[in-house]
Each structure stands twice: as C-alpha cells, then as structure tokens.
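Q: Hi! First time asking for a complex rather than a single chain. Here are the components, and I think there are two in total. Is that enough to go on?
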Amino acid sequence: MSSDRLIYLPLGGAGEIGMNAYVYGYGAPGKERLILVDIGVTFPNMDTSPGVDLIYADVAWLEERRDRLEAIFITHAHEDHVGAVGLAWPRLRVPVYARPFTANHAARKMEERGQDPAKINVVGAWPERIKAGPFEVAYLPVSHSIPESSALVIDTPAGRVVHTGDFKLDPTPLVGEPFDRGLWAEVAKPGVKVLTCDSTNVFSPNPGRSEATLGPAIRQLVERAPNMVVATTFASNIARVRTLAEAGRDAGRSVCLLGRAMRRMIEAGVESGVLTDFPATISPEQAAGIPRSNLMLIVTGSQGERRAASGQLSRGKYMGLELKEGDLFLFSSKTIPGNERDVLRVVNALSEMGVDVVDDANDLYHVSGHANRPDLSTIHTLMRPGAVVPMHGEHRHLREHVKLAAENGLHAALAPNGTMLDLTGDVPRAVEHVETGRTYLDGKVQIGALDGVVRDRIRMAMNGHVTVSLILDEEDEPVGEAWVELIGLPETLPGGEPLADVLEEALDKFLSRADDRVMTDDDLLEKDLRIIARRTAENEIGKRPEVTVVISRLA
Amino acid sequence: MSSDRLIYLPLGGAGEIGMNAYVYGYGAPGKERLILVDIGVTFPNMDTSPGVDLIYADVAWLEERRDRLEAIFITHAHEDHVGAVGLAWPRLRVPVYARPFTANHAARKMEERGQDPAKINVVGAWPERIKAGPFEVAYLPVSHSIPESSALVIDTPAGRVVHTGDFKLDPTPLVGEPFDRGLWAEVAKPGVKVLTCDSTNVFSPNPGRSEATLGPAIRQLVERAPNMVVATTFASNIARVRTLAEAGRDAGRSVCLLGRAMRRMIEAGVESGVLTDFPATISPEQAAGIPRSNLMLIVTGSQGERRAASGQLSRGKYMGLELKEGDLFLFSSKTIPGNERDVLRVVNALSEMGVDVVDDANDLYHVSGHANRPDLSTIHTLMRPGAVVPMHGEHRHLREHVKLAAENGLHAALAPNGTMLDLTGDVPRAVEHVETGRTYLDGKVQIGALDGVVRDRIRMAMNGHVTVSLILDEEDEPVGEAWVELIGLPETLPGGEPLADVLEEALDKFLSRADDRVMTDDDLLEKDLRIIARRTAENEIGKRPEVTVVISRLA
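A: Yes, that's all I need. Here is the structure of the assembled complex.
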C-alpha cells in the first residue's frame, strides 16, 4: 500500500521534563494502527496547579481512537514514564508491556488505581520481540539511573525506529545493564530510519560520568564523618542506594532505610533479581539503640518533599530517630528546577540543628542519569539514523538537540507535544497539529487542566473569597439586610473598621435603590451584588475577591 | 555608666536573603537608644504567600520602643534594603538617612506610600558623620551591583562597629565607587569591635570577578549577532546596563530601554550624578522603525516576571516591538533561587519563537555583586575585628560564615533574626530572643504573616471552597432544602453525578434527623453542616474543601 505512512505524535514529554507519552502509528492516513510508548506523570506546583495530586498527558486523542490502539510499551520504571499507567488504562484498555522490574512497578500503579495488574505483560530484552499490529517492538537494554531501562527498537514496514527512552552511556552502572556499544551497533546495522532521542541533558557540555566514579568519594565522606550520617537520593536510583549503603557498611555503620519508597524500591530490586548483594539493613527501632557514630540512614526526600523522611527529620523526630549537631546530611542528588525552595527549606532547617549539609555542588557525590551533549553526539554517530527526533525535554532542549543533530550532519525534526510527524519519507514532515493537554488527578477525580477548577482555586488564593447572602420575600423585598462572610481577606481596614461592615453597607445602599427589574431577576441581581462587593473591596483594600452570591427567595 | 551595653538585633535578613532590617542599641539594658539599618522587602510566592504584594520584617519590636529610636540608615538602593521604607515609616516616624542616589529611591518609596519624602535626609560619604543619640554613623563607600553602596561605620561608646551592607571587592565597578582598600584600612586602624558582614556568597569558592571583566565578552556577543539583540539584567545594576548599552552602540545598534524600572534607574543615575556617558537611547516608537539588525533592546524582567518587558516580549508584542526567529536574547543576570520556573517559562517561550537564548551558564555574561568566600576572608583579615557577626543570608549562609571566621582566627556569633547580641564585651553574647515576624502588604492593607488570612487562601487553593446555605423558619425548621455552591472543585463525580447534588443530599439527610438542640444552636448547626459537607466531599472526591456555612433565620 503506497499510501501507508509511519507517524509519530508526542502527547507529553516533548515540551516538559516529565509526563512522557509518545504515539507511533502505521497505516493509511487516519487509519493507522497505533502504539503508545510510556505514560508517565509530572508533579503539580502551587503556581499553576495547587491542590492537584498528579498530572499526566491528556490521552483524549488516543481514547477517541482506542479501536486502533494495539498496546502500551513502558521503557522504564521512573514515575515520569510509568506513573500514569493506572490512571490512563481505563481510558485505553489495551495490553501493557514492560520488562520484569518495570512491570513490577507498573502492576503496583494499576493496583493503586483499582485496575487489574494482570494487564501488565512481562517481556524479555532484545532479541525478544513483541508483535503489535504492524509493529514489532524489542527492548534494547541501556544504562540509566534505574535498573532495566530500555530503548525500544520499533520495526515497521517503513523501517526501524529506535526510541531511546531515558539513557546514559555508562559502562559501569553498578546495578542494571551497562551501555553495550556493540549491541547498539548491531541494532543500527540494518539502518535506523529515525532515532527518537532523550534531550534532557543537551545543555550539559561535558561527557557523562559513570555511576561507578562516585564510590570512593562517598566512602571517604562517610568514613570521616564523626557522628551520624544521613544520605538521600531518589529511591529508584538503586545503584546509588547500594553505593551509599556499602559506604556505610564499610565504615562499620549499621544501615537503616527510611521512607516507604526507599524500602519498597530495594525490595522490588531484590525480588526482580536486578539487585544483589545489598548490605544488611536494620529497622528504625533497632537504629534507635545504636550509637550515632555507628549509624547511617538512607532516606527519601532528595527534592525537599515535606512528608518524605528528610523533610520530617528536618523538623524533628521521625520513626524515633533525630538529627543532632555535628551530624552529616548528604544530598547525593540534584535539585530538579522548581524544587529549589523546598530543598533549601530542608537545608536551612538542618543548619538550624547544627547539621553539616553536603550537596552535589562540587560534582563529587552525584552523577546524572541522562546522556550529556557529547554522549548524544556519540549516539547520533553510532546509530547514523535517517533523522533525529528529539524528545523528553522542554522546548529549549528539543530545539538545541535539533541544532546538535544538524552539527552532526543529521536531519532532525522539532516536534513539540501535538506535532504529528510523518516519518515515512527521507525526512520527517509535520503533517498535523493535534490539541494536547494535561489531565489532573485531583483527589480521586480526573479533571482537565483547562476545566476552570484550578483557575478558580488560584484566583481564591490570590484574591480571597466573599460570600454574599440575601433573602428576598414574596414581594422581592430584602428580608433583613445583605450580609457577607470573608475567607482569606483582612478582617479590618487600615482605619480599624471591619471590612465586612463596609461591604454590607455598600450592598444595602445598592439594594435600597435597586428597581424591580433587578430585584426580580436572580441573574441580574447576583451580577450586580458581585460587582458591588468587588468594587468596594478594591477601593478599600486594593483586592478584587472572588464572590459567591447566595440569593434565597421565600416562595 | 558601667552597665551600658551595645546591642545588635536582626529583625530581618538574618535568616533569608532579602528584607534586611538590623537594629543597634546603646545604653542601659532595656533603655538603649536605638538605630535601624536598612528596611527592605522580600517578594512573595505562591507556595507561602499567594496574593501578597510585598513582605518586610515586622518592626513591632521597634514600634513599641519608638521613643528610643533615633534614626534609620539605608546602606543602598536595592529593594531588599530600602523597599519597605514607605511602609514602615508611619510605624517608626524617625529621620531616615541615605546618600544621594539612594535617597532619591527612598524618597520615591515614601511617596508611593503617601509619606513625606522630606523625611529622607541626604548625607555625604566618609568622613562625614551623622550623630544619632550615642551613635556616630558614617557612610563608607564600597563596590556592589548598584551605585553608592556603603558600609556603615558605627562609632559607639563601646567601640566601632563596621556594618558592611552588601558589598564586593571590585577595583573597577565601572559605575559607583571602587573598593578602596586603603580607606577601609584607615577605618580599621583604631580597631573594629565588630564586623557585621554580608554572607550571601559564602558558599562561592572562587574570588569575585570585577564588573569590568564582562565588557569584552558582551561586546563580542552583540557584535556577532545577526539580528535583533535583547538583553536583560537588574535595572539597578546601572554599570551592567551601561556595559550592555555600550556594546550595542559600538556594534552600530540603536539602543532602546524597555520597562519602567529600566528607564527610571538610568534617569535616577544621571540625575544624581553617579552615571555619566550613558549612550544615547531611542524610544520604542523610534525602535519600531529601525532595521532589526541595527537594534538592541535592554529590558526589565531578568527573573522571569510575567509583567516585565521580557515576560511580555516572550508572549508577543510589547510597545510595538516583537522578537523573531534568529534574534538573540541575553540574560546578563543570575536566576535567584525560587525563580527558576518563571525564568524557564520565558526561555521556553522564546525558544518557541526561534530566539537564541544565552545565559550566565558559562560565567561570561554575569558577575555577582557580593563578596565570595575568599573576599570575605580578605575583609576579615583587613579589618581584624574583635568579632564577626554574619548577616544577610539564610541560616546555612550565616552558619558557614561563622565557620569561615573561625578559620580566619576570629570570634564569630551566629545571630539569626530575633537573636539579641550584647556586643559590649570581648565576645558577642546572645542575651535575649525577640519574637520576629513578617508583615505582608496585601493590596492596600498591612497584615501579619500569621494572621491566618494567607493560610486560609492557601487552604482554598489546595482544597476548593463550598458555600452551604440554609434558611430556618420561626419553628427552626428548614425552609426548603440546604443548597451548596462550589468554587475550585470538580462539578461532577467520576460516575457523572453532580458533586453539588451529592453534598446537598447528605446535608438534607442530616437535617431531617437533626434534633432541636442542634437546630436551635447556630454554632452547633454550622459546625455539623461543615463536617457533613467536608466528610462527604472527602468520600466522594478525596478532598476536604473549605466551607462557609450561611444560616438565615426568619425571625
């Protein structure tokens, strides 16, 4: 069929770091059979999404084409790749594929949302292949900051696509498979039509460093510490957690894991067989009985999360353990942009306790899990694809990655979320723009980012809220006066007068002069009362609050 | 009087970067005559202070002792040192002193808040002295990122205090006075009892670089740019603005200043005589008629502020000017921690336009205005004070600065906000803890950070808001049913039922069974209705909203 085409459509991840969701399709235009690669979350913040629990790419486009969707493939177990599988699954209802460790997490994500974990299919690595409509997909092992990360080799009638997932070129990742150049070269041999490639570290100018380089420095730090040592990192960075634990053990310290995610990840690593030789650990209860200088805690909360172990320890006791003057706290991690304030809150609280904090400022105690600029060039050159399609990054990363590919003599296509590329020809071509968006998990409910719910919350946070109540009798006359209730507004004016009184006075003055046309029309009356309340508040306190008007008519 | 003492009390700035406010006192305990050094602001954020306009140190302690307050001294014209003068003045009502350029800004701050700008007294630099009760204060010029920055030499009966203000050791600051080692040595000669010292850059390991080092790199960048160049920096960094403007002029470009603060600062610099030889500028209207490759814009908004020129240009036209593919945007600035998300929003919007963004990542286009760690050591060694009191910094900075002073063989005292030090003896001694806090400017009203107003707003932002209304007749029976209005909550449940209906049903069920004791007691009834609404919402949507209950009784 000469009209068949191979398409690519990022629904998430190509415009942000987080919430990855990439669609590939093959077939006649508008009738392509589809697969989805990854379905991850991103995290809310007070600026744009207060009160929201999780965010993932709106899969409405796929949902409407569910009959054409063959399968979902998860590249690795990071939240921004697998975290939304349980949320999105009821909307998509197709088989999900993942390697064992990743599948373990995906199954848990399904269970958490009341979905059937058996929908997760465990698959092996290359050369094993999964058939999904016109696609054949294989998991190509690659190094990253979590075990079992894989690129996907996606064979299609139009040629081979290699979708890197998140990766780095680490010959010694300590846990999980190393980057195997020979294997990747073998994959590239028949020709790679498109390399869809991780972009997060395109601005990092130096070659990435191996996980194995950290051991000696961490060991030295822990050995020299006179009192208790506490270290934090992403729980999913199992190699790092093991390095930290080994440094503790080798310094004669008992090791205690704190935080649910930390313990769960290590268990999952052991269960799935990717993690071996993890040092013996003790419980928090046991730790409380051990001299502080013989103790090492490995804790959750590297991003300053309030409820994680690090956050709780920075505010006092946690599980019977507490930090004291002269203890050492190591951030074996990088602060993700946007989390600076949260992390610094923890650091300053630790400083107030007299705890010495060490972070990654001097590059000694942390390495990134992503390919840096020279590493990206290495992959470009090794794979020699017909084109590079940068993915996973903010717009600035994608754009820079396009430039880098050009420097390497390769075609490249800039495709932010919603840009459908036709990959069939020699050069990718944008053929359509699809509306994309974000779905919020808000408590137990999924809402659209643009539904207005969160916008209203932000407005209340900025402006406060006024309830105006009014009762009207059968003759449309006010029963008593209008009254107001305030939330999130100053009670008194600079002159000392209660704000509520001033608002009520203005409302009553309006009501005393309002004509029948207004008093008989709830919509009109509500609108007018809202305007009066807002205008008066603006004059008096310089803020325009959100207003709820409650009009009750005695029938 | 042998019982007289010299005290130091930071009300703000010793626990954060921002809102500087330091008290010195001399006299009998509890009767000290007082002076205040600096009265600056810090900026709100959505996480902790949504809707707030400005924040400054609560001066309640001083306000209660106003009869003992002699004067306010402003070290320099940065917002975090002078920004609250107009807000705090009505509470303190004493003369304010500043050098001319700083006084110009202080006077404007007074006018903005309806205060008399004549309360600002213009003073000259060292050796001029201002007498204020038992104190004699002189302005010792020093380099920083704004002209006319000064340390204060505070002579007291107990000895000399040098309060550095913000500073760096720059022999060639381009605008404003260089650091004059000889002058500082002269000040130190009679002996310095205490050095109260800027701590912000104590973690920066390398010696600070001079403002003058930036010119060549900026010039080269601007010269090589093929299309329009836009540069942003803090408007108050007049030296930088001139360097940028000169680079534009020398590359044959017309220079246009965009943003009110940018134009105002340059005007103030010229008026006060600190700025000379600023290149000719053109208006936005003129700029619109000039070929893009001959144009350079210098704009406000280096921190990603939405309403600043950079923010507006990142979203489209501003003052008739707009960015296009191939233009260059230079951040000649550092992103202040906490502003990362805002700055990246601008950067990504520019990326979408095809604009090339250059920032300070490679240290070519920005230098800090503060003394780095080795520079602090230089000052320690030069002044050889009896003790160092670190100020202006988060707790972690103050603590590290204490360590650095110890490394340099000096006594040092850690004194976060509220710690009153007795400086009289050989070593500073903490003698009292004073409750400190933050005052919020919220629209036109000043409120306390702990008044609950902002807390309620944050709760509404997290949880949404429900209004519950109920009318009761003379027999305490409901007239009709309870009804609810929602803001910031999903309208429908996952099953499709309206949330409002479900809440109303639960409330009515409760009301149908409520006994007289409840129905006759507004407080009890209100409490019960709130609990029902919250509990039902939590069950249905997993959120506990804020609830306003309005009960109307027909008398």
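A: Chain A has three domains: 5-206+368-448, 215-358, 464-553. Let me know if you'd like any chain examined more closely.
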